[in-house]
Amino acid sequence: MMEKKKINFIGGLIVLLLTSQLSGCASWFSGKDNSEKPAPLVEFKQTAVLKPLWRESAGSAGDYVFTPANMKGSVYAASHDGYLSRYDADSGKQSWRVETGKKLSGGVGAGDGMVFVGTGKGEVLSYSDDGKLLWQSQLSSEVLSAPQTEDGVVVIRTGDGKIFGLDAKDGKRKWVYQRATPALTVRSNVGVVVTHGAVFAGFAGGKLVGLNLINGNVGWEATVALPKGATELERIADITSLPVVDTREVCAVAYQGRVACFETQSGNPIWARDISSIAGMAMDQRNVYISDDKGAVVALDKTSGSSVWKQDKLFARKLSAPVVRRGYVVVGDVEGYVHLMLIEDGSFAARAATDGSSIGSQPVALENGFVVQTRSGGLHAFTIQ
């Protein structure tokens, strides 16, 4: 019988899981990525300062990637052990901490005065911004990413590739979107982007879709990358990170594939470039910024896709997706360092250490800086001076 195969990126390892439906047996293969040692940190003349604002502990992430959320001056963070906490974004003072009683698996989503977390058993929990449980909904598979909400709809992606639209009032299902997936896919914590009445999501096989937020209908589908190569492993071209969106264009990047931008309304292609990324990208008014799978940060012109700069001194440091803050590009790495690069040329401007554990999730923008969450559960907020 046909085998189901999945690549699992957990703790920075590439693992191939082969599960036979006939025998129920499983075997594990460790990929070459595990043997690459992070490049040593280079010396540079510091031109900016990453000043710590505050530091707190949300609890360990375990084998998952947890992303904090910023809503109306508060930071919300969760842990695999089931704790959900609220902190003041300026001081880090904890407002409340609740024990959900569940093993959480997805980062925090927040919006419209509500906070959302997911579990490995496919449950979604909704809390008010003062920590009271509002509702719980059961979905089809584990929740590995942060739920998103807009206009009374909560959108959640599950590990089996489905996207659910739930009523924000009571968690009842409004719609579900699903599509066929290739035999071999990358297991990741990729979620969705919800903005301006639409849902944007990338999929295995290099596809990007735009859905109607209210009913889940497909507005358009586009191809970011096409699988290529002689083996199933070489032919993986999955979008394992969030797309980036503005009013004119939406861009996405695929592992072993390309980065491509499309018209937001129609899905018509604008440009594409060969590049491979697991972590993802950011965008501002001029450029898109990509953390590629080798540890380089690449800036491309948003209009044409032409190269602007490349910072390649972070080889194999397993970078987070970047965020743009106050004229700088910010990334975290596998050893818990935060790197600050000038937006004009990618040169290093500042560096700061956290707690030594991996920063797997994208830094989250604050009004006066940004916050990162480490694998060991540390929340570290910085301002740029």
From TrEMBL:
NCBIfam families: assembly_YfgL (TIGR03300)
UniProt-annotated location(s): Cell outer membrane
One Pfam family linked to the record: PQQ_2
SUPFAM superfamilies cross-referenced by the UniProt entry: Quinoprotein alcohol dehydrogenase-like (SSF50998)
Family, as annotated: Belongs to the BamB family.
Keywords from the UniProt entry: Cell outer membrane, Membrane, Signal
HAMAP family named in the record: OM_assembly_BamB (MF_00923)
Organism: Sulfurirhabdus autotrophica
Subunit structure: Part of the Bam complex.
Role, per record: Part of the outer membrane protein assembly complex, which is involved in assembly and insertion of beta-barrel proteins into the outer membrane.
Name used for this protein in its record: Outer membrane protein assembly factor BamB
Main location: membrane
Keyword Translocase among UniProt keywords: no
